[in-house]
Structures are given as structure tokens and as C-alpha cells.
Amino acid sequence: MEKPKNCPKCGQKFKPSNKFCISCGSTVTVGDISMGENKSFSTLVKIIIIVVVIIAIAFGFLVAKDVINNLIEKQRIADEDRNANNVPSTTNPVYLSNPNGFIIDSEKQISNDPDDNKSVWVEKVVDNNTIIVSYLIIKGNENFITFRTIEITGIYDIGSNDCRSRLATDFLKRFIEHKYVYLATPEDYKSVDKLKPRLLRYVSILSSDVDPLVLDFSKLKSDEQISVEKNLVYAGYAVANYHIGDFNYALGLQNNEQEVARAAKRGFWGTCK
User: Fold this and answer.
1) Residue-wise over 71-88: b if at least 16 C-beta within 10 A, else e?
2) pTM score, whole prediction
3) What does each C-alpha distance from 78 to 13, 71, 84, 124 come to in angstroms?
4) 234 within domain boundaries
5) 61-111 per-position pLDDT tens digit
6) Residue 224: CB partners within 8 Å, gap ≥ 6?
7) 110 and 187 inside one domain
8) 123 in helix, strand or coil?
9) Can you give the CATH number for the domain in which 173 is found?
């Protein structure tokens, strides 16, 4: 049975043996039919090429976007580290009360680390478990305001580009930034301090210095020190984490404050997916 062909002139079906198209009346040769088929095939090839090119461009755009985002994030982290290691000025109230009476040790040349259980000023919250503090050091009859980067022990560094990290960092800022806190060195940390650019410390704050809209400690004595890391975990803005020498402490946070926070969907446990 003869297979119908498409007329190269009008595109309608006709039998090649008729030598002409019934629909448009055009005389059609075998060459015309072949040419029409070749044109159809050529058009199909062009469409396929265009589709492939569009897909390639879209894929390249996504790859380029991902690369750019990674570069931006790396630059942000580098800037953050640079800022953490270089504090050109201070908001420390002791300095502000008498700027001419102090030398700002912006390059951290003074080697004295902050003493345990003495107040230090939180200059900046860097991320969800890192802060920069300033404190007074008297050396050679000179008064210095120097700085250290503190990693809050007992809690996990969530990261920098994450729902939980953003909420936790913001909460920590409202909790302790531009306030006095107290540091304590965990057991076995002294040997680790000199190997790290950050000092690993427990952090506490007086209950009276905490904004009640952040955490309400109005029922406590005003001079009572409360644990920053424990209350971060309890409020749902930190994840308990083990460091050298504090396994039992971290385990206690995990089995108590963290379990309660997760079950009650507090903080980022109820907000972030």
C-alpha cells in the first residue's frame, strides 16, 4: 500500500503516484518530496540544538550562581575573621569614662589573658558561640584595654549560613552583647589555650544585666551569676557540644536543657526546618 507523503507546498497529505497535490493542485516530483522532508528534518535539528543550548545556558547560570555565592560566603567569613582579630576601637565603659587614661591594645600585644571570675566587656558577638571581649590590664604603670576572642564552651558552632545560626547569633547579641560577663576556664583547658587563636571559656552574666524581654530572671537575686551556655541551650538557641574536659557538663546540657527545648519546640527547634 502506498504511503502518503506531505506536500512540500501546502503540507497536506497526498499520494506521490498522483504526481500532484489534490489540496493545492501543485505538481510534485519525488525531488520536491525529498526536499520537503529534508527541510522538516533540518527544522527539527535546529529546534533540538536551540533546546540543548538553552538547557546548557540555564545549567551554566546555576553553576555560576553557586560559585559566586560560595565566593561571597568565603569573603564574608574572611571579613568576619579579620574583624574578630582586629578591634580598632572599644565600647568598654571603663575606657569611655576616661579615654585619655587608657591605651587601646588593638593589635593584642598584651599577653595577659583575662582572669577567671572577673568581669570582661562583650564588645561583639561574632557568631552563635564566639564573642570578642575587652578588659583592663595594668602593665608597666600603663593602663591598657586589650581584647580576646572567646569561644563559649559546651555549645556547638552551628555555622554561618543557616536558619539556626542566624537565630542563635541574634539571640546571643540580645543576651550579652555590650554587657559585662564572667569567664571561667574549664578543666584541662590551660594546655589548649596556646594552641588556639580563641580562648575556650564558660561564660556567665549577672541576672540583673539580662533584658527581661530576652530572658526573665527577675525572680533571682540581682548579683546571681547565670550560665550563658546553659540558658542558650534551654531557650532553644544552642546545641550542646563536648569539648576537652567538659564531657559530663555537655552531656548534662544534652540530656536536660536540650531535651526540654526540643520537646517544647523552643527557639530554632520550633522555627527552623
Assistant:
1) eeeeeeeeeeeeebeebe
2) 0.64
3) 69, 10, 10, 16
4) yes
5) 888 877 787 777 666 655 555 555 554 589 999 999 999 999 999 888 888
6) 206, 207, 217
7) yes
8) strand
9) 2.40.50.90
